[in-house]
Specification:
Structural class: mainly alpha
CATH architecture: Up-down Bundle
Shape: globular
Radius of gyration: 26 Å
Largest sheet: 2 strands, antiparallel
Order of helices and strands: HHHHHHEEHHHHHHHHHHHHHHEEHHHH
Number of strands: 4
Strand order of the largest sheet: 1-2
CATH topology: Amino acid/polyamine transporter I
Number of helices: 24
Helix content: 55-70%
Length: about 625
Amino acid sequence: MAGKAEESYTEGVDMTTTNAAVATLTEDEKQEENERPTWGHKVDFILSCVGFAVGLGNVWRFPYLCYRNGGGAFLIPYFICLVAGGVPVFFLEIFLGQFMSQGGIGCWKICPIFQGIGFATTVICLLLNVYYIIILNWAAYFFGRSFTSILPWSHCDNPWNTEYCTTNFTKPDTSSVTNMTNTTMDGNMTAVNGTNTTLQISPVVEFWENKVLNMSEGVEDLGEVQWELAVCLLCVWVVVYFCVFKGVKSTGKVVYFTATFPYVMLTVLLIRGATLDGAADGLFFYLNPDWERLKDHKVWIDAGTQIFFSYAIGLGCMTALGSYNKFHNDSYKQSILIAIVNSFTSLYSGLVVFSVLGFMAKEQGLDIKDVAASGPGLVFIAYPRALSLMPLAPLWSCLFFFMIILVGLDSQFVGVEGFVTAVVDMIPYLRRGYNREIFIAGLCVFNFLLGLTMVTNGGIYVFQIFDYYSASGISLLFMSFFECVAIAWIFGVNRFYDSIEIMIGYKPLPWFKVCWTVLTPLITVGIFVFMCVTWSPMEFKHFTGTYYFPTWAETIGWVMVIVVILCVPVTAVVKICQAKGTFRQRWREVTTPQLQYHQLRDKDKLALALSIDSNPSTPPPPYSSLQQYDTAL
């Protein structure tokens, strides 16, 4: 099949007719629809990619996975998966977007039978935009509550605190306990008095669960909308709208601040964290390698999934960002820089996080493993607790949550831009006048209304379903697998290398050819198999216990996964059915790329010219207008 893909671009394609409705447009309207913006400067593209790829997963997920999977030893499978899986797909998406100058859907004209990848990644991007912003919403709420002389989660004198709230923890003597039913999370302990178990809850846990979330018993009981959170959500969506409503011209300028300031804050927090008592213990715990853990297959699964999450591949957003590059932009060197910054940020964030967790562990007299947490448990429980113990606590809290907002904000508005780009490329009419701005406003309102379900009493459970399934590892792995198959085996890996050379003037390392053809598909399939073997029902752990989701809730989650995956085969079947002729002719039609003249290799241009000379009545291919065709020849 790979050999078959190396045939001429121009074979097996029929002439398409012009839509009569388009003919009625004025020349200015046609130009406005066809005109596609580009980045104002190369730095805009680099910072936008960094801003989107470097997100909350780098801050809260990587450090925890590194701790849980052998400390420094985790870096070995991490970098193997990085070099053989994450970076090659990341480069592929950037090159694909730049070569086709189209977003997540239109770019797959390069291999029409796999255009379902575009529809699938667009659906994932839409779902991601709905729930990812909820994290920014929580951070905005904490940020607003930090403007006070005493942080509300530093003491137990609040209306939402219970009789079990305490700031003085005592370590349990488990040898005297015969039946301990209460467990702990995020460094908040169950203290023991003789043979009786006395529950002790940190004020930050009660602030998180009783005030911010105001949690219900489960997803069955959504309860009421938390209006304080709803207002925060509205404010965040307004900010996102004004960041993206003018397209890459505005997005490219906003990231100059949102993508760089978090590094300033991380550095400030690292300097402060390194001076705290116990910081050295935290850093040693983070980096000390446990080589025995490399024998555990779960370590390799965590490394692989972290790479695909942190590099934001399989979402179509990197393709969208690449599509705004000029055709001959050297995105190869830029992508290398982006990949280095991404992985460096993960490592750097770990230093910041564990320096503070080491302080927190010593302050409370606990082991570091008892205060280490992942996800919301780290950002909204462990870290606020540590901040409350610092001098000038409100100031540090404001700075920390402002950083969290910025880290997530550029990921959010680039995600919105990725979805909008895919839709606008499919419907060029939206480029005319203020149609784009109106469309983005409607999209933000729609996402805001969906997000209201996640700021109810049961909203945290809805959030967990979206987080676990919508942009899940399974969906991203499938998209990465299909992308490699489409480019390396259908379009042709050698042809794609030629296309890259047309753009940047030279070919990348042969290593990427090996990855796209063999290694990356094998890694994605291997991780998927291990995920299926080790799969367990979805659960949500909180301080008072573990909540197991009902079957119907998990079914909704699996429906999201299946809908995404089915986009690819269903679209392929539809394309084949719409084609004409025998199956061989249909296959040729749906696997023939739809390109413009400047995207052809020299040998394809020569073949096209010879075919026209031998038969002047031969029409130009559908990917090239007659004017482009005549001028180029």
